[in-house]
Design goal:
This protein has helices at 3-11, 16-27, 30-42, 58-62, 71-82, 84-92. By secondary structure, it is an all-alpha fold. The protein has one domain (3-92). Helix 5 (71-82) packs across helix 6 (84-92). The longest helix has 13 residues, at 30-42.
């Protein structure tokens, strides 16, 4: 478990049940977790050796919507990997929530 990511979520008052779900996602995607840790520490996206999933990087996702900057961009990278059709649909619909 990443102490950097866990501390980020705790500092942002994420409930324990949600913290466990998010941490499990990052544990299953250590490459994305590494980039998220970099973002947490530096408040910017890596420019080299970035994770690319379905043609997207976290930075590219962050440019699609102001709501996808930071943590949301990394979670969407994981969703693109785990469920590309659903993630691409969210992107195409402009991240609308019901």
């Amino acid at each position: 478990m990443s102490n950097v990511i866990e501390t980020f979520y705790k500092d942002n008052n994420i409930p324990d049940f949600l913290l466990k779900q998010k941490m499990a996602k990052f544990e299953n995607n250590p490459d994305v977790a590494g980039e998220f840790e970099y973002w947490i520490k530096n408040k910017k996206y890596k420019q080299q050796e970035t994770v690319v999933v379905e043609g997207y990087t976290a930075e590219k996702i962050s440019q699609l919507s102001e709501y996808m900057d930071g943590e949301g961009a990394f979670m969407l990278l994981i969703e693109l990997r785990e469920n590309p059709d659903r993630a691409k649909k969210r992107i195409a619909e402009g991240f609308k929530y019901k």
